[in-house]
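Hello,

Our lab assistant flagged a job as stuck in the queue for most of the afternoon. It eventually completed. Since we weren't sure the result was trustworthy after the delay, we are filing this so someone can double-check. Below is the sequence as submitted and the structure that was eventually returned. Let us know if re-running is recommended.
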Amino acid sequence: MILERGTVLSDYNRWLKSYIRNAKHREVSKNSMLIYNRVLNKLQTYIKEQDEIRKLKEIDKEFILSFLEYFEEGSKSGKFSSKTKTLYKNM
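-- returned structure --
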């Protein structure tokens, strides 16, 4: 599958669809799928709001860490558990 074909959001959506299909074939649990969808939709929202990247290949470790910090600050407690941070980074 080619990494980039269009805009960052169209490419992200194409890869997201592929990721979800792959997870279903790996028989990921329904609860895990719900979590994955929630986190990946938040990432999509963050990409839109930041408007600082134009291509998927520009999403690097620093961008993901900024994403994590942004949503952690906006969470109910203002802090994620270490397990939540690990989940976000490993997806």
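-- support follow-up --
The delay was a queue issue, not a problem with the job. The result is valid. The chain has four helices and no strands. The chain has a mean pLDDT of 86.
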